[in-house]
Here is the input.
Amino acid sequence: VFKLPLPSDAELSLLTEDQRRSALALAEAILPDSRDPEGPRAADERTLASLERVLEHLSPWAVRAFGVAAQALDRAARVQTGRRFSDLDVRRQQALLDSWQANPVLRTPLTVISAALKFVHFDTGDVYTSLGGKLNVVQEVEQPRYLEQVMPATEWDDGDDLECEVVVVGTGAGGAVVGKELAERGHAVLFVEEGDFHQRDSFTGSSVQAHVDFYRGSLSVGNAPILIFAGRLVGGSTAINTGSCFRTPDPVLHRWCEELGTDAFAPEAMAPHFAKVERILEVGPANRAASGPAARLMMEGCDALGWRHEPMLRNAPGCMGEGFCDFGCRTDARKSTNLSYLPPALERGSMLLTGFRVDGVLREGGRAVGVEGVDKNGRRLKVRADAVVFGGGALFTPLFLAKQGLGGGSGQLGRNLTLHPSTGLMARFDERIDGHRHIPQGHYSPHFIDSDGILLNVAQADQNYTPMMTPMVGRRLMDYVDQLSHMAGFGMLVSDEEASGSVREGAKGFPFVRYDMTRGDVDRIHRGFIHLAEMAFAAGAHRVYPALQSWPVVDRDNFRRFRAARLGAGDTMCTSYHPLGTVKMGSDPKTSVVDLDHQMHDLPGLFIVDSSTVQGPLGVNPQVTIMAMATRAAGRIVDRVF
Ligand SMILES: Cc1cc2nc3c(=O)[nH]c(=O)nc-3n(C[C@H](O)[C@H](O)[C@H](O)COP(=O)(O)OP(=O)(O)OC[C@H]3O[C@@H](n4cnc5c(N)ncnc54)[C@H](O)[C@@H]3O)c2cc1C
Here is the structure.
């Protein structure tokens, strides 16, 4: 069981004593005791100590940002009451929290602080288990032969130069697929991956551990900050994803063909690639029983309203609903690329070096001839290859290319970013739901995808995560938390109206993402919430708790007002799991970065195959699209290089 080590007394915290005092008072007020004697306890010194450790791990700068936000709220308390927040009685503190939540300026620091505190507190062993959460321990894992081909780069002791025919950087949906396809054609493939190799005993279910060890991402800057997530482990984001599988919708394929002036991506041309990916991933409908009551309620709600709905297609045969796919699958049911694509490649003699961050591309005679990078001890390694495939993902690939001085000619590198903003609500039913013991996304409704770009689905997070999906704090938050076992989670993914986001390198090498929601995006999200609430009410929900700053609770009494309301971008609380499109494809080097075969216009031999070359929005989850494009790309690479 993963436990966050608390800092020892001797260790100095980065928060000043004054910031600490403010932060502790806020923590105790934002996360008070449950009214249920068996329910979660209040936050205390331990919560703060764990939080400091996590924030420090992410970046010491994050601890400072937290401290400054805490002090800003303390200052607001002094202005409003003449006293420090920590000196107020509980009733007055709760009243202040309510007033800040309604204040468009102060709710920003309040959201920063409360999200961070909820993240750590509800994941703490005793608090998590008091909510019915179960941390998992896997005693023994299988040791298949292909593991002999996997090695931390630090253990590579056969010289600092490696040679192969194809070096593949990144083992996610793009890299792993293209590597396996080329290995099967008989090419000597070396995979290199910045993250570590994990087996199912690493996946305890702790959300904090998952975010520290397997995740990275960014927070977009714009009119509605969006947390963007990606994986950093063998398998890439596929090893922490929810397993939902969609083919690219036909209208999107037609749009690409038109924009790119080709038939290469027409539905008939892509169909064999989709079929192959689905066969390898063992895609099939979600098990009905493992999908739980929330899926049944979605069916009932949709039936009552005459909306189409279907079981989700997933790459998780035999999944019985452990309930925390996004923190790693502890049963190996979900066929992420580390379980589906990498093993056959490794069995054919490919190698995988982990903990190897590629930071340069080797060039000779105007061609890419390999990559170089560092292992975890800082040793530099070079890999020489006839073809270089880069699959670092839509946030990181453009940063890498920019640093190499590549792809800049068209002005398109890092642009055209779409995010598929995602959000949702919790609906209170009479019956027990226990969503955390079922498949997170077992059922969905395509009813509004074609007509309005809104995908509705069951969206059940684990107990340690769900409290972050509401802006509520304090007593109201704990009253909500006490009802979690009777809440069903429903979510939406919306198609971005414009592909106008961008990413470039920010401080300390982190991706700096700019993204503004359009008026159309905000209205679409509003319509999505209306649909979800209608569906939940039709299935018998008493009230819903949307992830919306200005409407934390909607019931039948205020539903009409909610429908008529005009939401602002700042009201929304969205996350993104699908950054797409930052390395534009096209035949003209003046307007695109890679050609239709994924080869860089300005460096032959370097192929970009990942979510960055998928032009969004798709309107559906993208892994099958990325993998089908990678399957096609493998054939094109053979034609162009070998
Ligand atoms: C929490 C979550 C849930 C999701 N749920 C779904 C879902 O249900 N269905 C779906 O279709 N999609 C889902 N997705 C999205 C899907 O998983 C991604 O779109 C897809 O995996 C992206 O593929 P990729 O190859 O572009 O990048 P990734 O899969 O992210 O792989 C990139 C890899 O490259 C490595 N890397 C990056 N830079 C370097 C470097 N310089 N050197 C070495 N290695 C490097 C990274 O560590 C990473 O392992 C989800 C994503 C997340 C994060």
